[in-house]
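User: Structure please.
Assistant: Input sequence and predicted structure:
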Amino acid sequence: MPYNAAAVTTRVFNAALDRGDVFLYPFVLDFSGGDRYARFPFMYNGRALTSLPGGAPAPSCLVSGRAGGNLRFDPPGPSAGGAPVPDGARAGEGAAAGEGAAAGEGAAAGEGAAAGEGAAAGGSPAGLHGPAREEFFRSLGLSPDRVYSLWQIHSRTVHALDRTFTGGPVEFARTGDGMVSFLPGPFLALTVADCLPVFLLDTETGYFAALHSGWKGTGIVLKALALMKERGTRPEALAAVLGPCIQSCCYRVDPDRAAAFEAEFGAPPFSGSGDASYPLGRAAVYRNDPAPDSPCEGGWYLGLQAANAGLLAGAGVRNIAYCRDCTFTDERLGSYRREGPGYTRMAAMAGPFEKPPE
C-alpha cells in the first residue's frame, strides 16, 4: 500500500497519510461534546487550521447528528424574487422516480429546499428556516439571518456569495447544490442524508465553499473550484474536507450506474495510472463477498469520497481530509437508505465559528 502513516496532533483527526504530494487526513466524527453535532477543522500541511493569514479565525465545519433533529429545509411557499420551485422538487428533490436507491437521491420532500423559497415577504428571515433549524442555529450561537441555504436539486450548480450581493438569506434564494462565500461572515448550510458534503477553504484568502454531492452531482467540486480560481484561488492552497456519507461498503448500485460513474470519474490526470491514481480507491468497485459484518450483498458499489478525492487531486488540491464514518451503518447519523421516507436531514455547515474544533 503506497501510504505511510504519521500522527496528527488533533483529537478529531487520527492520522495523516502521505501519498507523494497529496496529503490525506482520515478522521472520525467526535460527538463527545454532545450528540447534536460534531465539529471538525480544515487540515493543511499536517495541521488543523485555526486562523488565516492576518490572524482572522479560519472557517471550520460541522454536521448535525440524528440527535440534533430533522433539520429539513422546507419553507412554506414561493418567495417574491426567489427562483421558481422546480416541478416535483417538494416530492423528490428533483430526483427521478425510482432513484431512492442512490445516496439520498429521490429522498422524501424537502431535503435542502432553497434559502428564500417560501421566505416571508419583505426580506425577513422569519419562517425561512423553520423552528427546528432556527433553534439549532441559535444553540450554536448563530443568528439565523447569517445562515445561507439552497433548494437542493442534485445538480452541479454553484452560487457565489460576494460583495455584489446586498441582501440576506431570503434574497439569496435559488436552486442549486453548492455555495462559495467570498465574504468573511456568512455561514453556509446544506442538508445531507447519505449524500456527500464537501467543504473547501482557500487558506490564503479565506474563501470557503459548501457542496452537496450525490451520484448525480458528483463533479460539482470542479465547478466550485473553477469559480474560486476566477477570484485568484490556487488549487495547491486549498484545504478540502469530505464529510460523512454512505461509504463504498454499503452504496450498492446497478451495473449500468456503476459503469457510467466509473467512466466519468475514473483515474484522474495526475501522477501515476490505474489504481495508483485513486487517492481513496476506485470510484466504483465490484464486491463478490462483502465483509462478514456488512449488511450489504455482493454487487457494484460506488465511492462518493473516492470519486471526489480523485477529482480534487487531479485539479491540483494537495490536502484532503475525509470522514471514515458511514451514514448507513452509523446510527448516530441520518440515512435515507437506512431510515426510509422519514429519514433525518442532517445540517452540513461551514463558517467562522467563534471557537475552533477541539
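The helical segments are 89-92, 131-139, 220-230, 255-264, 304-314, 336-339.
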